[in-house]
Amino acid sequence: MDEVLTIAQIEVQFKSEWVLVEDPHTNEALKVQSGRVRWHSKDRDEVYRKAIELRPKRFAMLYTGRMPENTAIVL
Question: Is the CB of residue 49 less than 8 Å from the CB of residue 5?
Fold first, then answer.
């Protein structure tokens, strides 16, 4: 997957999945706008393991679905 995709394309193509994006292009607020999808899965841990294996220099981890109710996000 060497093609650069926009965030909209990523969200449509990988609906409700965790996505590893290499060399993400971001806006001023560091929100991902586009990038190269290196791996995707419904299993978050699988995507984290792949990130460790691939060791990209710059990457973002995205979830393209809706977070379940009562889910806490820690930044």
Answer: no
Q: Is residue 19 part of a domain?
A: yes
Say how many domains are in the chain: 1
Alpha-carbon distances, residue 61 vs 39, 49, 71 (angstroms): 10, 12, 17
Domain that includes residue 36, residue range: 4-63
Residue 70 located in a structural domain: no
Question: What single letter denotes the amino acid at residue 49?
Answer: R
- pLDDT digits over 31-51, tens only? 999 999 999 999 999 999 999
Strand partners, 8: none
**Is the residue at 48 inside a domain?**
yes
Q: What is the pTM of this model?
A: 0.86
Distances (CA, A) of 46 to 6, 27, 39, 50: 23, 28, 9, 6
Six-digit token pair at 41? Answer: 């899965």
